Description:
This protein has a three-stranded mixed β-sheet. The chain is elongated and about 60 Å long. The protein has helices spanning 8-12, 14-24, 43-67, 74-85, and strands at residues 3-6, 28-32, 35-40. The chain has two domains: 3-41, YefM-like fold (3-Layer(aba) Sandwich); 44-85. The termini are far apart. A hairpin with a 2-residue loop joins strand 2 and strand 3 (35-40). By secondary structure, it is an alpha+beta fold.
Amino acid sequence: MPKIMPSSDLRNKYNEISEFCHKYSEPVYITKNGQGDLAVMSIETYEKLIGMFELHGLLNEGMNAMKKRKVSAAADVFEKIESNLTK
């Protein structure tokens, strides 16, 4: 269940918001005049989320390359790497 707090709590209950975000690795949704306005989260959670987006993008690139048959066999790739290392 998401935690929802009014914008006034950013100033008045900052430590509580910070502790919640770090303890549960979840965002706190901040409202302004009763409407959703911001999502606040720990840096660790943010970086994990961004990492998942980046990984998803790379996996999509790989899947698209496979569909277009623009891939090489793993053995060929490792052989090429080894030959470059011995030069």
